Amino acid sequence: MPVEAPLDTQENGKGQGHLPPQNIEAEQRVLGAILLDGGEGSTVASVMEVLRPEHCYRPSHRVIFEAMIVLFERSDPIDILTVVDALKKIGKLDEAGGQEYVARLSDDVSSARRAVAYAKLVRATYLARSL
Asked: Into which CATH architecture does domain 24-130 fall?
């Protein structure tokens, strides 16, 4: 069962009442896979080759991914504790959905191996939104 994402209150700007292309579950799986890997493997580096924070549809996922990138660039571990701490330090934990949301991201991910495949899905939906 996918993690319940914080509600997105952004308007799509088209006035048609339709949501733009998105794949929230793939976004959650990417972030969850990075958390499972803990920053010890190459998961976050491989994902960063495909995905940027702005490719995520949910603002909460953008903020979480940005925090993960900062941790990676500092060679810090990337786990629930460090991501939550990084988000607290910049005052964006609530924007990210809170500690419980971050903690649940890896619940539906059994392995970090598919992170790049999920990242490609997220990027494809971003490109579809950009059309």
From this structure: Orthogonal Bundle (1.10)
